[in-house]
Amino acid sequence: MPFVKVSNSVLSTSMSYLSNSSSCYFKALACISGAFGSASGAHPMSTTTQPVVIRIPRHIQEKVENVKQLRGNTKINTIKAGKLLIMSKNPELNQSAGYTFGKFEQPQLSSKGWKHNKSYGDYFTINNTQTTPPFITEIQDEGSEPKGKSKQVTFSKLHLCPDLLDALGKDNITHPTTVQLQTIPKLLNGYNILCAAETGSGKTLSYLLPIIHKLQVEKAAESVETTPRTRSVILVPSRELADQVSAVARSLCGPCRLMVKTVGGGRGVGRIRLAFIKGPPDMLVATPGALIKAMRRRYLDLGELSFVVVDEADTMFDPSFSGMLESILAQTRVASDPSETRGPSPTRKAQLVVVGATFPGGVGEVLSQVTDLGSMVTIKSKNLHFLMPHVKQTFLKVRGSDKLLELHQVLKTAEQDKTGVLVFCNRASTVNWLGFSLEDMGLRHVRLQGEMPASVRAGIFHSFQKGMVDVLICTDIASRGLDTQRVRLVVNYDFPESLTDYIHRTGRVGRVGSVEKGEVLSFVTHRWDVELVQKIETAARRKTILPGMESAIRKPDAKAAEEEEELPS
């Protein structure tokens, strides 16, 4: 049999190519067969040894070279010069901030293999691509040419009473955020509001300011003989949030000579009665359970209210609160038109305000029972349900047994900066265990979880907020609405169980008034954690909203858009 003299490089290249191209396989096979059968007419059984050279067709050689170049030069993303959006342990999975995926292009994820045990120690970071929160309106420099209407608007141009403006000025608050700029004029004009905006965007002031303004105007117009009554109720899910909202309200209501009281969960009937002992407050901040206790003892009549606010809507419309909320709203006379919010007290109906950073699907069903949904003006932030672009977010794949050591190192580093750190756990038992462990390590902290008695919980968050202690270990009770301007770092010791919880936890940093750049560190341990992380990473790479966050929030229809009035100038 004649020898076929083929160089090793050509043969290996040919075989590599043949394994990937069945069509070329037959062409090459024909060449080899011809070489064996037609070498100088030699008989197959002949012992004559004459070397035969196989010549690979030029077009096949070119295809082989193309395949080699593609395999050697293909990269996941072409990294352009500039800031990275995604920074991964594997540099090939980095993504520049300017890169945009096509509609049908599938991004390669840093967390793709994180369900495997060998992935421990892997990490990636979603960098902040801007330094200013997207909900902060730009402020026009003095002496420069105005570039847009919103840049010139201050609170003084929103037709608020002088006492309110003085109170805001004392806190150096002069310019409204985007959500405040949209909400305040609507509430002043008597509309019901459904406000959906990202965490930390100033939603509390967006409803407090117009309500306090209108309460003062109403009180000034009433005669001396008018029977005092509670005219506004603000519903919140926790006593900590009730204390916080009432503190802000008192600072604003004081100069306006309006009374604010608080009734929260875990307090007995005697404590609730004290809120009304000096007469009905103008504004009552309450949790649903405490408000129902006050209603049963006839401390207030919901039919006489002028304003009802439901804050933190995703929690308030949750099954744990929805039954009580429906009972409360059923006893409230909610207006279906702005004209019904004007006129004398006996005929005047209440404005309804529902605010939140996320909304569950059942909101519409509950609200439709108390008012015409078409009467509600929807104010929806354009950044709602997006990852916050001004907050750096890092994900670390770590064994459960290593989380305590990792947290200890993080807290030791943060201890030197004297800034606030929130550590989130999914269970109250984990909060307690982690607290005892950190005590053994000599790290000073406080704990906050829902199973604590009301007397123990009282003042814990306040001490953290005032800087008396820098580390707060907590459950999601601290993730809803609480103002945490001094927090620089959020640590998800347990990865949140839903994307909604992730949004609220990350919203504890990068808030209006925050002086520190916010960061979030998440420990990823379980396989079900990885599934959520992959959804977050995909949304970050595609620059889209987080999946499954679509809710019953409707966009304003054309008629509502036509009815919108110009902002006060």
From TrEMBL:
One of its GO terms (molecular function) is hydrolase activity. It comes from Esox lucius. It is an enzyme of class 3 (hydrolase). Residues 153-181 form the DEAD-box RNA helicase Q domain. A motif (Q motif) lies at residues 153-181. InterPro entries: DEAD/DEAH_box_helicase_dom (IPR011545), Helicase_ATP-bd (IPR014001), Helicase_C-like (IPR001650), P-loop_NTPase (IPR027417), RNA_helicase_DEAD_Q_motif (IPR014014). It comes from the Eukaryota. Its EC number is 3.6.4.13. Keywords: ATP-binding, Helicase, Hydrolase, Nucleotide-binding. CDD domains: SF2_C_DEAD (cd18787). SUPFAM superfamilies: P-loop containing nucleoside triphosphate hydrolases. Signal peptide: none annotated. Pfam families: DEAD, Helicase_C. Residues 184-377 form the Helicase ATP-binding domain. Residues 406-557 form the Helicase C-terminal domain. This is RNA helicase.
